[in-house]
Write a structure and sequence with these properties.
- The protein is mostly helical.
- The chain is built from ten helices and no strands.
- It has helices at 7-25, 32-39, 43-49, 53-68, 81-92, 96-100, 103-110, 117-143, 152-170, 176-194.
Length: 197
């Protein structure tokens, strides 16, 4: 029986250190040398796993997906399909996003899609995966008789776009009261789109 590879564990630790540096200093100021300093290792060790900062950024996008999966978790600690879907929608409009991943790092890495085709592919994959998770949650709810929507995929796409647009706009809202009022309105709007039975 062979030994289990430590590569995925080491890569994840490096990506988490890269995220920490990017969060503190901005993605544009993050570097392999700074990541190595945080980890207290030689930069060549970081480069053994990630040859360039671009490779690290692609790993970071995968890390974002891993973190965001927690929001779309269809189980949410309950066996009741209606409660699971309601919890998923509540998660989508909660502050959990901010706790899972820093918006500044997310949008800084996202902006690279306009200059780097590989980053664009990674982000599309991330968003497509999240849409698929939401589609699965809505399909389960429809099959269970919880919601009455004609086209589950179209509805999931519209909900996803609504959520993405809401968070893009809300990232510019500083007033806590305005933020809360808008987030409650957005959540109610999405719930009405789902046509709960």
């Amino acid at each position: 029986m062979g030994r289990k590879s430590l590569k995925p564990i080491r890569q994840k630790g490096i990506i988490q250190a890269f995220y920490k540096v990017a969060r503190k200093e901005g993605l544009e100021n993050a570097s392999i040398a700074k990541v190595a300093s945080v980890l207290d290792v030689n930069p060549s060790l970081v480069m053994h796993y990630f040859k360039t900062k671009q490779d690290l950024t692609h790993g970071l996008i995968e890390y974002i997906l891993e973190r965001y999966r927690l929001i779309y978790n269809p189980q949410n600690g309950t066996a009741n399909p209606k409660e699971r879907l309601e919890k998923t929608i509540q998660n989508l409009f909660s502050r959990k996003w901010n706790k899972l991943f820093d918006d500044g790092v997310f949008y800084s890495s996202f902006s690279l899609i306009f200059r780097d085709p590989k980053t664009k592919i990674h982000y599309k994959k991330l968003h497509d995966h999240l849409r698929e998770m939401l589609t699965g949650a809505l399909m389960e709810a429809k099959t269970s008789g919880v919601i009455a929507v004609e086209d589950v995929e179209k509805t999931a796409d519209l909900v996803f776009i609504f959520v993405e647009g809401a968070y893009y706009y809300l990232s510019m809202v500083s007033d806590k009261s305005e933020y809360q009022n808008r987030i409650e309105l957005y959540e109610k709007t999405v719930l009405s789109m789902l046509n709960f039975v």
